[in-house]
Amino acid sequence: MKKVLSILIIWGGLLILTSVPTPAIDISKGIILDVPQEILESQFGKIPLSQLTRQDSMEIASYRFTGDTLKLLAILVEWNNRPGTYPKETFDSLLFSRGVFPGGSVADYYYEVSYGQLNIVGEVIDWYNAGTYTIGFDFEELLPELDSVIDYSQFDGNNDGDVDAVTFIRSGNGKEDSGDWNDIWSYAYSYAIGTGPGPFDGVYVSRWNTSPETQPLHDPLYPPDFSGVDTLNKIRVFCHELGHGLGLPDLYDYDSKLNTSTYYTPGDANDHPLVDWCLMGYYGYGLLSIGSQVPSHLCGWSKKELGWIDPIGLVGEFSNLVINSIETTKDSSLYLLPIDPAEGEFFLLEYRNPGSEAEFDKIDSDFSVYFWPDLTFGGDSLDRGLIITHVHDSLCTTWGCNDGTPNFPHYSVIVEDAGYNPSLDTSYNPEGHLTDSAQWWYPYETRRAAPFSNDVSGQNVFSPTTYPNSDGYSGPSGITVIVDSIVGERLYAYVYVPMPVFSLYSPSDSVLIPYEVTFEWMDPNPWNQLYFDLHISTSKGFHPDSTLIYDSLLSNQYTDSLEVGTYYWKVRAYNESEERWSSQTWTLFSGICGDATADGLINLSDPICLANYYFGKPCLINPLVSDVDCDNLINLGDALIIANVYFGKPGFELNCCP
């Protein structure tokens, strides 16, 4: 096991023994999450070049846990100079108990946010003394050391050949809470499935994380300082790190993560896209806030990614749309408004209700550590209302995809903030500045993403003309959402979503296709059923007498057999309230290159017919497929090429240019 490199430093005549991190875990073969860039080298030593290919990174990023039971292996780790405090039984209750742990256990949390679709079970391994403490400690080295006392195969709940999840609960505080450079910053580590440490008992450990045993308490009389008392950690960080084990990425921005100025500088490298509205957002960390003690729910996007909820796609106009509290039901609680389906761009609507019967999703982070005394000590209740999340899924194919600028043009997942308006800054609050009850907080981003609600004047409409507006990243979407009322577990809204622009896919424009043709086009709302009318015509103006209409199709493709000729095609998409035509009308040439006689075969009758045609003898040919050398002439050269192709002579090929 790697030890601390100790160096004697002479300082003011005194000999000081200091700890310097030696290279520990090899972070070149996987992806490390949660550790800020400015912390990486101090915690892990010199950072090696990644050995992952882009395909490796995409494979890791696309992983999502499948199964209804996750088997978690929890290992308590202490050191000679950093002993553990709480007994094994405490962590068994914190992680796995149901309905008894104060404030809720990790198992309680995931059972609730998954709507009963995920059970967390497992075992806690009692405190293991790992020698001498160092902030660069290599937790992976414990896995083979403990192989004789752990049957790792018992923790593969979904039978994919990998341990579902491993968490190392380490003695002491985490740097994310304490800011102490002698503490380890909590993190998760991910390899591709079927790789990583192992195999142990026939399985690999491809995902593991580490969280601290304790957290430091802030001083209620002066929140920026600590009281000097440490207490048992809350489940917040355990839940967040386990989210990575399920395959979820961080949804906060890593850029300048520890720079407090990013909280009041709009449009900088870090505009805090979700903060407290998602467990995987910038949540639970204490350097710039006192983290929430009761975890927020996973946002609708994360629940969708894990397959726990299916969003309802909307296109058209909807009055009095009922949106149920997403904390307590997966039915009619997540709606998807398509913007650009080809890009995976859409808005998600979810009603967040801290007054629901749910156990979690109650309190936001306490930013009094940063804004005291304007903000008082202690978390505030999350506001109730409609959360509108702007998603651009095609931008998110690797880890770190929610960093926004400068590496990406914008965030992949960001909540539209009803309370963040340059024309209504903090001075518009009744107190004239930022307070616990403030509804407007520009330019501060500490409460990024006020919900849309009729409870607050000016915060109930989201449209092309509001701030923020409903534009997509490539242009206006035309979408309008108005929160009409909120009654208990239900929010009522008006929603208008125009049919998105959609394109034809295949066959491409002006190509020659054999007689059986499969037409395919983009589905402008793949998240809900539309109907399609396929129009195929021999006249460019689609005259009724020369147009075939295949109507009420339920799929975005259709196969048809066409006679030889020139055709034009387009598609109409519609539902009961909205319609749109495809953005193109394409031309299609039906036939087989070289089949001059249009009998569906290439044989000797084709060059013979061409020769007769050339010499003025009676023979009906199809000119679209007879000019096989693309010289815009039909002559004996074409007949010669077809004959040689028929007899398999090398150096000859058919090449029509209709």
Describe the protein's architecture and organization:
With 658 residues, the protein is an alpha+beta fold. It has four domains: 1-247, no CATH class; 299-496, no CATH class; 504-590, Immunoglobulin-like, CATH 2.60.40; 593-658, Type 1 dockerin domain, CATH 1.10.1330. 13% of the residues lie in helices and 27% in strands. The chain is built from eleven helices and 28 strands. It has helices at 37-44, 54-62, 88-96, 106-113, 142-145, 175-178, 235-245, 300-305, 368-371, 605-614, 636-646, and strands at 5-11, 14-20, 31-33, 69-78, 119-129, 165-170, 187-190, 207-212, 214-219, 222-232, 312-313, 316-324, 334-340, 345-352, 385-392, 413-415, 461-462, 480-487, 490-497, 504-506, 511-513, 516-521, 531-537, 547-553, 557-561, 565-574, 579-581, 586-590. The chain has a six-stranded mixed beta sheet, with helices on one face. Strands 21, 23, 24, 26, 27 and 28 form a six-stranded mixed beta sheet that branches. Strands 11-13-14-15-16 form a five-stranded mixed beta sheet, with no helix packed on it. Helix 10 runs antiparallel to helix 11. The radius of gyration is 31 Å and the shape is globular. The termini are far apart.
